[in-house]
Write a structure and sequence with these properties.
The chain is α/β, with parallel strands linked by helices. The chain contains 21 helices and 30 strands. Strand 1 and strand 2 form a beta hairpin. Helix 7 packs across helix 8 and helix 15 crosses helix 16. Bound molecules: adenosine-5'-monophosphate-propyl ester. The site of adenosine-5'-monophosphate-propyl ester (PRX) has 24 residues, from helix 13, strand 20, strand 24, strand 25 and strand 27.
């Protein structure tokens, strides 16, 4: 879609941005600065290029190492950068054990169930320690799992997800958590790619007032995985209500077990955290790519943990005394880095919220904030827009006070930013707009909250130790403030960057480095800029404004969906001949996919068929993929070489002029499709 960025006929983030004027700055308040973890401007110098890579020692020193590392950055196998080489540590130990002496009685996790009449669970560090140990014993002794094995998790937002991840981390077992809203089929694809023999799931969870049967997805996942040659030996099932089965789907004899039943045999068993190499793998997180197959971003232990702990401390401003609530789902990278690993490594109290923010009404998040006295709040523009739409005056009704708020996942419109600042933050909280990706482990651009002014709609400069730059298509840097959009790259390695794509080193190189690599033989990191795949502009003050994806990926409500994945799901409907998916601007979700289909000969377009297509996308990928609209068209606009012109479809879907269509093989079709608008 690179060409489409400059095309006036497509509603892209680039266009929104072009219409954005430079916004006024907002100053962080003095009360915030007085308590902030980072207020010394020397940090920017300290993390400057002159001190790279040794500057990152500061982050690594926030962790407890079993063995200190010898080499800070090993660049011998570009672009597989290795951080803190020779060091040994354990992530579970760093998130739990080391806090016990001082904080065993402190809440590690506040679990907020969706039903408001169910009490909030406050799990102390000691309790978390006990539960993680017992479950690690199950994984090791009952399942026979050991360092380097993979397991797939398909778990909802319940504390057992944190327990499962940390139990895996204790053993060096690589967890691959799949977002619970994803379908059984999507879970199967990830089981197959990760070659997992175990699936850990839950029987049910609440979503929008309903207790959903989640176990049924495990059956679909295992069935599909089997068809693709990956046998799942055991499905371990957490119960939403321990001791009670809350799903209708029957258990599969010999394969399915309730974790609650097995745990009885492991009561109070302790498992010594395995001392692991810094460059061993902590987890996989699958993300959509330009081709159908999702990519497993493979994150390290030492580099990743250092990076998320450092950025949690300095950008999220987390102190152990804070009550921190990130409303993202743990099934996405945000939840891994900034609900679990970063906050817990800093001994914070982290909130896990099961439900939908606007259920039963838009006051729910603010009641939770009031009850728990949350002071750091972290969410996405999509959630902010939804809360603003249905409850613009709700925050004022509740007595909570945030010192700090984050927005993440998509560009935020300045007027939405201002509502977040004025109404949700009550003009007391600083805001950080953090730009980053599944692949990057942690934040790339953001203001440092105690140091920088905020500017609505702009993410900010690179965070300390990150040196971003905007390149044109030929790799030439665009001058700051030139007002032109280009491709944002990070010039240097950093500890949070994934080590590779699971099982596909070539794809890792091709997707993220090939575009701007200066010399494939070079062992000098300067020759390997990281290509993020986002368009951006840099203002004269060095703040970046992110314009959105430049590849075939649609960012729906802050979640990436590959257009190819969506189209191939559409093509699974028998009646469909061709399918094309385009992003269309949406006031709440940022973007929603519209799917255009042409039907096989002799098939009549009906409302029932549209519904079938829509339902198939939702069942194949997940409800998040439900198209904003299904368009049944007589034919697709095509180039003479037969390529579907998605640009034209995007313009029509947005009600815009389709522009010059004379080069099409079938220009007359454009008018026909327009009539459907
Ligand atoms: O396009 C950027 C957008 O989300 C993409 C990364 O998506 P994902 O890997 O799912 O991770 C989401 C959470 C980190 C980016 O390539 N994006 C992320 N944060 C921002 C953003 N766009 C604008 N502003 C942001 N703050």
């Amino acid at each position: 879609m690179a060409d489409e960025k400059n095309d006036e006929n497509i509603v892209s983030e680039a266009q929104i941005a072009v219409h954005w004027k430079e916004e006024e700055y907002f100053e962080p308040n003095t009360k915030f600065i007085a308590q902030a973890n980072l207020t010394d401007p020397d940090i920017l110098e300290k993390f400057g290029e002159k001190n790279f890579p040794e500057c990152y020692k500061d982050y690594a020193d926030l962790l407890t190492w079993d063995k200190y590392w010898g080499t800070t950055l090993d660049t011998s196998d570009p672009p597989h950068w290795k951080w803190f080489v020779g060091g040994k540590l354990n992530a579970s130990y760093n998130c739990i054990d080391r806090h016990l002496a001082k904080y065993k009685n402190k809440t590690a996790i506040h679990f907020v169930p969706e039903p408001e009449d169910e009490p909030i669970v406050h799990m102390t560090y000691q309790e978390l320690y006990n539960k993680v140990n017992e479950f690690a014993a199950v994984l090791r002794d009952y399942c026979g799992l050991k360092k380097g094995d993979t397991v797939t998790l398909h778990m909802p937002m319940i504390p057992e997800l944190a327990i499962t991840m940390l139990a895996c981390a204790r053993l060096g077992v690589i967890h691959s958590q799949v977002f619970s809203g994803f379908s059984g089929k999507a879970c199967a694809d990830r089981i197959v790619d990760a070659k997992s023999k175990f699936l850990i799931t839950a029987d049910s969870y609440y979503r929008g007032g309903k207790l959903l049967d989640h176990k049924e997805k495990a059956d679909i996942a295992c069935g599909r995985a089997e068809e693709e040659g990956q046998h799942v030996e055991k499905v371990l099932i957490w119960q939403r209500y321990p001791g009670k089965y809350s799903a209708a789907t029957p258990l599969v004899e010999g394969r399915d077990v309730f974790i609650n039943d097995i745990l009885k045999d492991y009561r109070n068993v302790k498992v010594k955290p395995v001392s692991l190499d810094s460059t061993d793998t902590l987890f996989l997180m699958y993300t959509s790519g330009t081709t159908g197959k999702p990519k497993g971003a493979q994150h390290s232990i030492g580099g990743y943990m250092s990076y998320v702990t450092g950025t949690s401390k300095y950008i999220q401003d987390i102190h152990p005394e804070d009550v921190y609530w990130c409303m993202a789902d743990i099934g996405w990278i945000t939840g891994h880095s900034y609900i679990i690993y970063g906050p817990l490594a800093l001994a914070a109290s982290s909130v896990i919220f099961e439900g939908v923010p606007t259920h039963p009404d838009a006051g729910r998040p603010w009641r939770v904030a009031e009850e728990l006295d949350v002071n750091i709040f972290h969410t996405s523009p999509t959630a902010i827009r939804a809360l603003r739409r249905v409850g613009p005056d709700e925050p004022a009704k509740y007595n909570y006070h945030f010192k700090h708020m984050t927005t993440v996942g998509e560009p935020i419109e300045p007027n939405v930013w201002r509502w977040y600042y004025n109404t949700v933050g009550k003009k007391e909280a600083v805001i950080v707009d953090t730009w980053w990706q599944t692949e990057t482990g942690g934040f790339l651009c953001s203001t440092v909250p105690g140091l920088h002014k905020m500017k609505p709609g702009s993410t900010g400069p690179g965070v300390p130790g990150i040196y971003p730059e905007i390149l044109d298509d030929d790799g030439n840097p665009l001058p700051k403030g030139c007002g032109k959009a280009g491709n944002i790259v990070i010039r240097n390695p950093w500890p949070g960057l994934m080590m590779t794509i699971w099982g596909d080193d070539e794809r890792f190189k091709n997707v993220y480095f090939a575009r701007y690599n200066k010399d494939p033989e070079s062992k000098d990191w300067h020759d390997w800029p990281y290509f993020a795949g986002d368009g951006a502009v840099e203002a004269p003050d060095g703040y970046f404004r992110i314009l959105g994806r430049i590849d075939d990926v649609i960012n729906v409500a802050g979640h990436r969906l590959g257009t190819k994945e969506l189209e191939s799901a559409g093509l699974m409907v028998d009646e469909v001949g061709e399918a094309a998916v385009v992003p269309v601007a949406d006031p709440i979700k940022g973007k929603v996919p519209h799917i255009f289909v042409s039907l096989k000969p002799g098939i009549e377009p009906t409302e029932a068929l549209k519904k079938k297509i829509s339902d198939t996308l939702a069942s194949e990928i997940g409800p998040i993929a439900k198209p904003g609209r299904v368009w049944i068209v007589p034919d697709m606009p095509k180039t003479r070489s037969g390529k579907i012109m998605r640009r034209v479809l995007g313009a029509i879907a947005a009600g815009k002029d389709a522009g010059d269509v004379t080069t099409l093989a079938n220009p007359e079709i454009v008018e026909e499709i327009k009539k459907l608008y």
